[in-house]
Fold this protein.
Amino acid sequence: MSASSAFNDEKGGSSSVGEPEYGHDPASGGIFSSDYKRHDDLKEMLDSNKDSLKLEAMKRIVAMIARGKNASDLFPAVVKNVACKNIEVKKLVYVYLVRYAEEQQDLALLSISTFQRGLKDPNQLIRASALRVLSSIRVTIIVPIMMLAIKEAASDMSPYVRKTAAHAIPKLYSLDPEQKDQLIEVIEKLLADKTTLVAGSVVMAFEEVCPERIDLIHKNYRKLCNLLIDVEEWGQVVIINMLTRYARTQFLNPNINESLLEEGGSGEKTFYGSDDEEDEDEEEKEKKAETAAMAKRKPYVMDPDHRLLLRNTKPLLQSRNAAVVMAVAQLYFHLAPKAEVGVIAKALVRLLRSHSEVQYVVLQNVATMTIKRRGMFEPYLKSFYIRSTDPTQIKVLKLEVLTNLANETNISTILREFQTYIKSMDKDFVAATIQAIGRCATNIGEVRDTCLNGLVQLLSNRDELVVAESVVVIKKLLQMQPEKHSDIIKHMAKLTDNIQVPMARASILWLIGEYCEHVPKIAPDVLRKMAKSFTNEEDIVKLQIINLAAKLYLTNSKQTKLLTQYVLNLAKYDQNYDIRDRARFIRQLIVPTEKSGALSKYAKKLFLALKPAPVLESPFKDRDHFQLGSLSHLLNAKAGGYQELPDWPEAAPDPSVRNVEVPEWTKCSSREKRKEKKVEKPFYSDSEGESGPTESADSESDSGSGSESASGSEVSASGSESEESEEGSESEEEEQKDKKKTKKELKKPVQESESEQSSEEEERKHARKSKISKSESESESDEEDESESESSESESEDSESEAEVKKKKKAAESKPPCKPVKKENKKEKKEISLLDLDDFDPTPSPQVTPVNSFLSSSLVTDLEGLSLSDSVLAPATMAPSSALKSYELLHRITGEGLQVEFCFSRQPFSPDANMVAVQMHFTNNASADAKSLHMEDVKLQSGMRVREFPEIELLPAGETATAVMGIDFCDSTQAANFQLCTQTRKFFVSIQPPVGELMRPVFLTENEFKKEQGQLMGMNEITEKLTLDATCRNEHTIVQRVTAAANLSRVPCGSDKECSPPVPPPDHPVYRFAGRTVTSGSLVLVTVVTREEGAAQLTVNCEKMVIGTMLVKDILLALTQ
Amino acid sequence: MIHSLFLINQSGDIFLEKHWKSVIGRSVCDYFFEAKEKAVEPENVPPVLQTPHHYLITIFRGKLFFLSVIQTEVSPLFVIEFLHRIADTIQDYFGECSETVIKDNVVTVYELLEEMLDNGFPLATESNILKEMIKPPTILRSVVNTLTGGSNVGDMLPTGQLSNIPWRRAGVKYTNNEAYFDVIEEIDAIVDKSGTTVFAEIQGVIEACVRLSGMPDLTLSFMNPSLLDDVSFHPCVRFKRWEAERVLSFIPPDGNFTLMNYHVSSQNVVAIPVYVKQSINFFESGSCGRLDITIGPKQTMGKTVEGLMVTVHMPKAVLSVNLTPTQGSCTYDSATKVLVWDIGKLNPQKLPNLRGSLSMQSGAPKPEENPSLNIDLKIQQLAISGLKVSRLDMYGEKYKPFKGVKYVTKAGKFQVRS
């Protein structure tokens, strides 16, 4: 007993658990019999019926494992408990299994059936944990079982189980790399998953198994970008790093023009290069000039997907996780246009406050960045100042950054800082500082002399290391302009008496030798002294003595001939063969004998050739060819598994590969998916209601809408193209279609296949064509991009408010009366008024809004019925005052002759008052009849609803038809996406409402208006000043424009006589408009106050701030146009 | 990603190991020990080491080395950040992160490590989720457990992992609902010998302690959010609300957490609360020196400066000191050459002074540099940047929570060069 505990102490591993008898390690040479005895005890405990005993035993065993002791002989006893009911015992058994299964494969198989059973458990967490353990057991024989389990779990309805499946993929891959192909299939499937939970894990699996299969990302690119902000931190890092590589292969270099300028400007560099290099450079330059000219011809336009990535990663710079911040920073560094990279500096500087290890890594990366983009960090110069308490490695890195940042303007401050550093007690740091001063001096000509003087002063420092380092640096500096500084050389010559550091001595000797004509008197004397101490010198010093001797012999042989002979003789018998070699070589060269060949004639040229001054370069130069933030970058060497950061492509690959085609999966597994969705709903919607930032569902369809709108333009482009090149490709088309699993798709794949199949020539033609069309479509898409960005911003805001709405709704369902609506005291009142309005609304609106008044709901239904025949007139009759703006839903060409437009008819949608009526106008321009026009596969944000229009059975060629559908947009401007189907084709379309259509007019008197307005002050009020257009200063136009922009009704002014005594007609007419949002019935109040000379003020009061802000924007636009 | 983890104490004993993939022998740590030998201070061990077959990424925390073994390319910060997260979790569970604590709770720590990583990739790192799966030890529970044979492992399955707000555990219930926020600001400064400020900035952090039932949705707004220059948030904060309205809107995790870190915009002049008059002289002959330090209040906004402390790392040659403080106590550790003068409260009427002689190793040359002084201080009820919380609103729950905000200003890396 006592012996064993003493042994424990020795190992430094005494712990309260498993102490003292069980802490002994049988493998460490203990007595076997006693071990078995002890383990018998544990076995007994494991075999007992009591869970508490089992638990105790398992705890001891795990403690042994934790301390690295061998507990493998307990395997049979432990594995029996794998089916134990007690959850803690079970967990510990799992821990044990995962640790030892590899060593005891046969026995481990006993446990497999338990896990297989677990995989079928109705509880998702049990399924997940079973899969986790099963896949962690590294037993080759169960590979097929694992494969099966992973495949099954990958289509599990629980996202958590799918996540676990993603985790299991790399485990299986490392166990049996031959499964790669099958695993890639699973990865592909999981990549298509739309939950944030899975995204990070599956990308991690992708990176480990098949990082080269970049093509798998195309379809999921936009989704990943949009989900990114809601993925957990660790997943974010992996995704961002992967997307950086992806973007490098798919998009064009945003800095293409600038980088050319840079190259051109840095012509200085070649100054140091040899002639050959220059030639090469010139060639290169020519090439670059060509490409530059090319670039000029075709201005760079950023791909919207490229922009999407930059935009969606930017907020993550605010992450608390340093790894995420670094990942975004490197993404921006590698992908962003030069002007935008600056945003990362602040975040990186922030990380310098973190743990020293984080600082270490960040500074390494900052050092690399400062070489390429110095300006970015210049404002933060002082953040890199060094504290005496910093660890040395941090100090050195900060010094590196400071040196890189030095320029003419800040050099004096930096040098002043350096001066304090030189006095530091940390000598390694001082040496680094001296090097840094040297580099500043070479880079910035103005301060060269100052630095040199400062360094010379350091030569009298008491610390030898400091002096030595200074000598080395001075040597380098002097090489730049030796003639000016012979006094310094003299001064240094004197130092040879004192300095003992070999490197410094060698440097001084080299200097004297090299510039002996500047110090003709001293040089021979130095050689004399050196000759005396030759035998006691270090090797590098000896070599330099020989060098010095040789040079002096050549320039001043009179004085130094004998000395040189002497030195060479000493060297001849040196112990070091390098020195002996050198001596022999030099003797042959410089001392002319009859044997010496032609070389000795050139001895002078050989030794006294003009040597180029060294370039003091940062060790971080050119490190940026490694992806920043990677291990390889840090080590400046390729680490295993490092994926090269590809160069930008010359021409961007086809962007349409990222278009998402939905029918594929709806076709194959629509039923499954739907089921899944239903099941997921409960726990998702639960949390969704409350969580603003995690709007996975929202962002999902965000991506959908984004891609759709983008694809719209592309489709149209490709459509026109295919028209041109239609000749004879149709049959190919057919074939191709068959090959591709007879997908019903848009044009895109056809186009692809065409280019695949067509001959090279055609390909070239294609390329040229697509270039042209690309540049067109790019410019288009750029515009789109802007609008997209706007809308997506507002969308996201919306979604928050949506969440609020949902909350309210839920509250109304679950705990009816009290849900805080901003102000707690008004809570109840508001709630009531909301309810009131719902009941109240329909009645007043017909009276008030004259425009819509005669359209009773019944009429609408009538119209719906009539729609087949001829209702082109309908919009005209419905909205006489403001011509309804119609929007294109399906273009004639995209729709293969079918053209669809829609407008918001601004009439109550009779089947459901909470829906916005959308009037669709179909025109069949094709030569054939279109049959059974209907909607399918409606994709909506949660909460949104759609009432489909009745199917149009036949639309003869050349005819038109009208139908009305209702959409509940949930008071958001998010698009409703659906497919418009004919008998033969399906078209993806989306309807996105302008904010002004999300409301319906209500009648309010001026007094009511003012009262309501009074309650919607503060945050709910948005005011904007504007100048009215000259054409828009009369009452009529103002009213018309406002009502055109938003579905509101005018509040008659002064109609309420009770309130106010007769007022003189106001100088500044005030126009008031009122409405309620369609879904929630929140009041929307708009006031336009006009002043002199077209000055005006627009005020919008709305409980929904998002709607308010957007409405202000829209009305402002309408009034100022 | 992370292959294995070794916990090593300062004397070089490996006292815990965990492997997430195949077992890697302890000998891999030898490369680390080699590097540790070379570096004099433990802080100076390079965080990333390359060995023939592996890469070692190490952090030094609480006098312990967390050494992780990596085999392939990985973002080093990813690993470093994760190792710190492990240390944070241990601290969160057991109150501190030290060798004794880990050894005492070795099974729990091991279970935690098991849950935090799966195959070397982070799985559950949110403290709220982990606590649902593995209950942190409390005295009461350990007593109950020994009596009933109960366990520390939650028998409930962690539902947090499934939700979209993974940082909050479900079914939180308190009788006293309270939410406290500590606004802690630190002044980082380098002050010149002459008393001019070379560099100063304010870094702030808002630490929250939220114990609210259900699913509260909080909104914290500031009187002067424009002060904040750079911010970083806990994942719970809705970034878009911040962008649009400059308010912090979030569903908090349960318990203690760091809500945000911020940096005060550099345009604002930083108030330096104290001034230091010092003279440290070493004499060429006689191997001795003199030291005289006085501290006085400068810009304290009318508050008292507390917890004042001066730390000086003396040159190696200083053998001992003979100093008398007018206030507080002064100690000198001749092994580490660290002089600590613990002053306490700063009395503006009677300024604290430390004066006396330093005795040096005879024959040693006069030190080149005078050591710099590191100042520690604390001012209660003051955020030196002037940042003020304007209000805290709660939505989503009916009860009225008890709310509180506390301000503290501290010295961060406050250094006076001499």
In short: Chain A touches chain B through 123 residues (CB under 8 Å).
